[in-house]
């Protein structure tokens, strides 16, 4: 079923999860161990799987020379999605990114998903990892997420990149990303929301937000989105702080702020960071639920236990 249909049919907020594929050479069994727990305790309506662009590194060769190598660290998103669908009967949502892909490669990936019976996609831009340089550019690259959304919408209308007579239309539900604390490249939040509205108008069926720790930011963001005419579900993304290092890494990597109270509590009691982070997430999620959010999307990556504890708490409320 499509993600948007899950939201439309739900009579309570939906709990969903986002995971990452293992590193190249890693065992898929570790992902299944996490998902077995998630499915046993929650049975989410859908599970997102992130996509990872190739990254450029400089590697020293045996003869001492340096070589620029472009490699995807975490391949396998589409295969993992197919495995989730068949192992659990749960709708997988692969992320598709613009970064590092030509439009032709994106079209091929969408055809594979269509054949696999996967009709949900989160369309995002990705960040510059240096891999784009290795592409044959020739004007075939999606620059922003909106370009990928338009490409998918075209396929949904039977319009592929080349003219094909009587081409079979695809039927993808498209999620897009939103930023309660604004995307780091946007000059201001209103400008960012205008771009978000364009993504939705181009075919985005729902929005999942970047993680945030301060609900006020989400509530204000939703209010601004509604005023600008965005009327699709805006699903809050929640990450649970579990390590003192998150105080530095999360703001650095995701351009978000961590409220004073949480930052002080963790830095004054580092040994109990997990406990403090889970407690924060419980109260944060409860407030969101009470405010009537369409669902909560937990970024669990490889470790589901903290999120499952939060969900357990929410169930009892
Ligand atoms: P866009 O919507 O293209 O926006 C990027 C920036 O460009 C914004 O500042 C926007 O305001 C601006 N912009 C948009 N359109 C235009 C235009 N026409 N002209 C000028 N400026 C414009 N990354 C991964 O690599 N893999 C993942 O699986 C992944 N999953 C994610 C899931 C979620 C829910 C979120 C929130 C982020 C995820 N990311 C992922 C990170 C994402 O790739 C980065 O945040 C990226 O920098 C922006 O992606 P976007 O789709 O929001 O980009």
Walk me through what this model shows.
- Helix 4 (103-116) packs across helix 5, helix 9 (260-268) runs antiparallel to helix 10 and helix 10 (273-290) crosses helix 11 (305-315).
- This protein is globular.
- It has helices at residues 3-9, 28-41, 77-88, 103-116, 145-156, 189-201, 215-227, 246-254, 260-268, 273-290, 305-315, and strands at 14-19, 46-49, 55-60, 66-71, 91-97, 120-124, 173-178, 206-211, 234-238, 295-299.
- The chain has a single domain, classed as Alpha-Beta Barrel (TIM Barrel).
- An eight-stranded parallel β-barrel has the order 1-2-5-6-7-8-9-10, surrounded by five helices. Strands 3-4 form a two-stranded antiparallel sheet.
- The chain is of the alpha/beta class and 317 residues long.
- The longest helix has 18 residues, at 273-290.
- The protein is built from eleven helices and ten strands.
- Flavin-adenine dinucleotide binds at residues 50-53, 95, 97, 122, 124-127, 144-146, 177, 183, 185-186, 192, 195, 199, 208, 210, 237.
């Amino acid at each position: 079923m499509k993600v948007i249909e899950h939201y439309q049919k739900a009579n309570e907020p939906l709990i969903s999860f986002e995971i990452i594929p293992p590193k190249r050479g890693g065992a898929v069994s570790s992902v299944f161990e996490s998902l077995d727990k998630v499915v046993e305790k929650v049975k989410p309506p859908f599970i997102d799987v992130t996509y990872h662009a190739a990254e450029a590194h400089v590697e020293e060769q045996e003869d001492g020379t340096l070589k620029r190598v472009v490699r995807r660290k975490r391949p396998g998103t589409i295969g993992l999605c197919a495995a989730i669908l068949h192992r659990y009967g749960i709708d997988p949502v692969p992320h598709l990114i613009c970064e590092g892909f030509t439009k032709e490669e994106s079209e091929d990936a969408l055809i594979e998903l269509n054949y696999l019976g996967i009709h949900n996609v989160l369309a995002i831009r990705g960040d510059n990892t240096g891999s784009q340089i290795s592409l044959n550019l020739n004007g075939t690259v999606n620059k922003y997420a909106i370009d990928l959304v338009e490409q998918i919408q075209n396929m949904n209308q039977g319009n592929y990149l080349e003219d094909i007579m009587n081409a079979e239309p695809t039927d993808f539900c498209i999620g897009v990303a939103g930023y309660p604390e604004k995307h780091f490249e946007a000059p201001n939040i209103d400008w960012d929301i205008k771009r978000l509205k364009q993504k939705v108008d181009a075919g985005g069926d729902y929005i999942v937000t970047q993680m945030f720790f301060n609900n006020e930011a989400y509530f204000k963001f939703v209010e601004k989105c509604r005023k600008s005419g965005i009327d699709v579900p805006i699903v809050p993304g929640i990450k649970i702080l579990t390590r003192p290092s998150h105080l530095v890494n999360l703001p650095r990597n995701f351009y978000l702020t961590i409220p004073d109270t949480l930052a002080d509590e963790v830095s004054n009691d580092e040994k109990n960071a997990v406990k403090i982070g889970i407690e924060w997430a419980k109260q944060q999620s409860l407030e969101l639920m009470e405010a009537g959010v369409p669902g909560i999307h937990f970024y669990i990556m490889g470790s589901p236990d903290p999120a499952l504890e939060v969900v357990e708490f929410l169930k009892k409320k």
